[in-house]
Amino acid sequence: MTHPIGIDFGGSGIKAAPVDLSVGDFAEDRQRIDTPQPSTPDAVADVMAELVSAFPDATGPIGVTIPGVVRSGVVHSAANIDKGWIGTDADALLTERLGRDVHVVNDADAAGVAELRYGAAKGRSGLVILTTLGTGIGSAILYDGVLVPNSELGHLEIDGQVAEKRAAASIKTNEGLSWKDWAERLTRYYRTLEKLFSPDLFVVGGGVSKDADHFLPLIEVDTEMIPATLRNRAGIIGAAVITTE
User: Fold this and answer.
1) How many domains is the chain partitioned into structurally?
2) Of 4, 69, 206, 218, which is least packed with CB atoms within 10 Å of its CB?
3) Same domain, yes or no, for 145 and 105?
4) Residue 197: inside a domain, yes or no?
5) What is the DSSP letter of 89?
6) Nearest 10 degrees: CA dihedral of 227, 165, 134, 177?
7) Which residues contact 78 (CB under 8 A, 6 or more apart)?
8) Bridging pattern class, strands 5-9 and 62-66
9) How many Å apart are CA 16 and CA 165, to the nearest integer?
10) Which range of residues forms the domain containing residue 181?
11) Distance (Å, rounded) from C-alpha 181 to C-alpha 165?
12) What is the pLDDT of residues 162-196, one digit of tens each?
């Protein structure tokens, strides 16, 4: 059985692995290469081609996460990558460069799809909002198992500030916040999401989700809130899933 390849393109690293969709996990060990600087479309495409060449037996389609808004394969924002991506038809560029079908998707949306299919949101109906707490705050809106793409809820303005500039995991590190102080900021953020969307479930992802016991119980919201289970594998797995949909 051939496996699709998922590629997770981030501001600091590009990671790839074939994915066994029957179990929702990597079929081979993940490979990683530092994101080129500047991270122009052509430079990143070259790195992705190198990563794909490491998996000669994985001949299926390729899914790629992009840290930006993606509509019909075209990138429309680039907060943490080279601005040359804006307006780029990434589906077409990468399909040509990698020599097989490529589908690109917003990175948080990919994580949301992975958690829906295999992780914390599996079997959950109603409105699920996944957030990824990292350098910024990514989001995925899932309703009755269907992705509503490009929500970008980390860019909401709350109390005169962009939410991710006050409550992302990177802000906790940069400002030396305690878990309690950070949880107070997250409470303000998630209460705002509650008012806007009245979700049935929050799934909290990103690398910091491994420390969920330190901060999730301190966030004071009415909505059920649980940690993501796939953590930093979610982007690759979700990108691979989307190639089949």
Assistant:
1) 2
2) 218
3) no
4) yes
5) B
6) -70
7) 67, 68, 84, 85, 86
8) parallel
9) 28
10) 123-229
11) 15
12) 999 999 999 999 999 999 999 999 999 999 999 99
